[in-house]
Amino acid sequence: MILKLKTLVEEFSLQPQSSFDDDFVVTGVNTLKNAVEGELSFFTNKKYLPDLFETRASAVLLEEPVAGCKAIQLVVKNPYAVLARILQKMFPEHLPPPAIHPTAVISDKATIGENCYVGPHCIVSDDAVIGPGTSLMGNCHVGKGSTLGEKCVLYPSVTLYHHVHLGDRVRVHANSVIGSDGFGYAQDNGIHIKIPQLGGVRIENDVEIGSNTSIDRGAQHDTIIGEGTKIDNCVQIGHGVQTGKHCLFIAQTGIAGSTMLGNHVIFAGQSGAVGHLKIGDKTVFMVRSIATKDTPKPGYYAGFPARPADQHHREKALIRRMDRLRKKVCELEKCLKK
To answer: Whole-prediction pTM value?
Structure first.
């Protein structure tokens, strides 16, 4: 979609630092380095200051004016977030028009809302409810008694087991599985006895789940993913986990069963938590860190076991100095022997 710059300025409360033609149109969005005349770009990292001075973009979103930039400077708070909203406006997602493919298998006991799309070879089981405007791409499975709210999107080959409940505007990407059995076994003389997983899964509004991610159903109570949470590809959420609102889980994160997370918690790539923990609001676990105990205090945590990041970095620095310290001790020992 091509939009007038004037429209973007008015709708997103941008503050132009120079005049421009009211009829000027934005033809696209690009990086500072690759942008051409007519395109909009953005500047959010000082590392790219040289690119800002050399960019061919006609206009640039930025947080404060920069002397020497030849493009129209559009000052706005949090330019990256504004860029995201502009992109959504300029490039809206094109979902299939409402239809039910002839190869879809839909139970007579299921309910399909208005303006839904059910793609090839989808299965919608007994007592399932698909909310208005929801799209199921090819090969999706919706289990018995599962419900989806309004304007959800299940991409190809997503599986929702029985009694999985999605709120409104939930997006689940290809090959993810929601509601499979939690990993629960009792041991008896070396034999693993399966514990029936009697809970379900509840995904609240505006959650997005990447591809190849698994969220297990609870053993006794539901696994809950809080409103606005975003989950990357290849993430494992164990049975009975409950997250707060607007959490982030980056690729290859694993959260063990019954762990309780506050709001705005972040687990970076290949990080995780053991089971039955309580994690407070606004805690951030850095790459490859593992939470092994309750962490109520907000802040950054790193390492295994996870500890305050500044402490972890000091310890790592000491380890790097160990060889030099060893040599110094050896020299001192030689001096003492003399």
So the answer is: 0.90
